[in-house]
Amino acid sequence: MSYVYTSICAFENSIREFVTQKLLEEKGADWWEQCVPNKVRERAETRKEEEDKIRWHTQRGDNFINYTEFGDLISIMRGDNWEYFEPHIVSLEWAQQIIKALERSRNVIMHSGELSEQDLARIGTLIRDWIRQVGI
């Protein structure tokens, strides 16, 4: 299952980079404050503050987006920000379904579970579909 987790992790991080890049291009350096819903922003900032206290352990990164949950990425794309993502994603519902399905598989693996062949095939299909549509 480690190769599947690695694939999902790489995919998740590529979406974080995509969101960051788009909002940085469109809104500038203050995109985090301007574009991220308060609840998502506060939760991520609190997580980072907690990790900052544990100096002996490697942290998730310097950017707050690294402290968001996978599903939070959809929340960031919604609302006023949707216009920046629509040309790439076309349907927010489609993107949300992909992220939810992959998050479910990710959580099974993270808690020492094993996925069926059907789940593995679905993961591959979903990631390929996203890459074909969005280009990342």
UniProtKB/TrEMBL annotation:
It comes from the Bacteria. Residues 11-135 form the Swt1-like HEPN domain. Pfam families: HEPN_Swt1. This is Swt1-like HEPN domain-containing protein. The lineage of its organism: Bacteria, Pseudomonadati, Bacteroidota, Flavobacteriia, Flavobacteriales.
